[in-house]
Amino acid sequence: MSKTARMVMKIIGASLAFAAFVCLLIGGWHDLRVGVCGMKRCLSRKFGSEYDDYADEELYT
Q: Three-state DSSP class for 50?
């Protein structure tokens, strides 16, 4: 096999791998978003301010 054909096959393989990664990312986008939102909620609950318990809106009405 010539060097040119080998290089073309490597380029095709790399582009197919990249396309597979993009498809996997798009297919699992919802699951990634749910995981990130859940992690944000968990961290905000764990490291939230001690004054988050109070309803400040009700104090000024």
A: coil
- Phi first, then psi: what are they for 28, rounded to 5°? -100, 15
Q: Residue 10 pLDDT more than 80?
A: yes
For 15, the domain range is: 3-45
Q: Is residue 57 part of a domain?
A: no
Does residue 25 fall inside a structural domain?
yes
pTM above 0.70, yes or no: no
Closest CA to 17 of 25, 32, 28, 3: 25
Rounded to whole angstroms, how far apart are CA atoms 37 and 31?
10
